[in-house]
Design a protein that fits this description.
Helix content is 33%, strand content 28%. It contains 6 helices and 10 strands, in the order βββαββαβαααβαβββ. It has helices at residues 48-55, 77-87, 103-113, 118-131, 147-159, 177-194, and strands at 4-17, 20-33, 37-41, 63-68, 71-72, 88-91, 165-169, 197-201, 213-218, 221-222. The radius of gyration is 17 Å and the shape is globular.
């Protein structure tokens, strides 16, 4: 039995663009323990988002294996759906909120996918929004919220099903300094207080002070 919550073994991703072959990620192996926070840093175009998308079971690797909670990802539809629902919370840089839904309804969607609906879904969604400091914004549409507030909804949606693994793609990338710092503190609290495992792709050097380890990716290769 592995001591790691997440393992990547020899991940490789190749894109075919007509006659051109682009190797976006090359032979990447990494491990993340339970209750551990890790940052993946590197220049633009280095393959960070591609790597995170593979770790989050959004993108299938060309070669290599991913293990989450000691289960090898099989990449069939049922397996992927189960892993995403039960084990992974994904925070997108662009928020990926439904513009026609309120903050509360955006979080409820994640619960509905787990079969939790109606009043119970509303109760849990409200509690999670309160936990991220948005208890007074539950009925607001995304267009009426700031970037930091929309990011908090995205985080609440990622957390509401209590997944052990949180993956965040540039969670402070669209935010001002003060709001970005608040999001960093929120992610750190997840690790310290709730023993979640967090993997963050970021350019934000402040992350280096709040994570346990930093991986550096250049041209699709881990260099440290």
């Amino acid at each position: 039995m592995s001591e790691y919550l997440l393992e990547a073994r020899g991940l490789r991703k190749v894109y075919e663009e007509g006659p051109v072959t682009v190797e976006a990620v090359r032979n990447v192996s990494l491990q993340v323990g339970a209750g551990e926070s890790v940052a993946i840093m590197g220049p633009s175009g280095s393959g960070k988002t591609t790597l995170l998308s593979m770790l989050g079971c959004i993108l299938k690797p060309t070669n290599g294996n991913i293990l989450i909670e000691n289960r090898v990802i099989k990449w069939d539809i049922d397996d992927i759906s189960r892993i995403r629902l039960e084990s992974i919370g994904f925070v997108f840089q662009s928020f990926n909120l439904f513009s026609a839904l309120t903050a509360l309804e955006n979080v409820e969607v994640a619960l509905n996918l787990r079969g939790i609906k109606g009043l119970e879904a509303r109760r849990q969604a409200r509690e999670m929004l309160e936990a991220v400091g948005l208890g007074d914004r539950v009925d607001f549409l995304p267009r009426d919220l700031s970037g930091g507030q929309k990011q908090r909804i995205s985080i609440a949606r990622a957390l509401v099903n209590h997944p052990p693994l949180i993956l965040a793609d540039e969670p402070t990338g669209n935010l001002d300094s003060k709001t970005g710092h608040a999001i960093i503190e929120l992610l750190r609290d997840l690790v310290v207080k709730e023993r979640r495992s967090v993997v963050v792709v970021t350019h934000d050097t402040r992350m280096m002070d709040v994570v346990h380890r930093v991986y550096h990716l250049e041209d699709g290769v881990l260099v440290s």
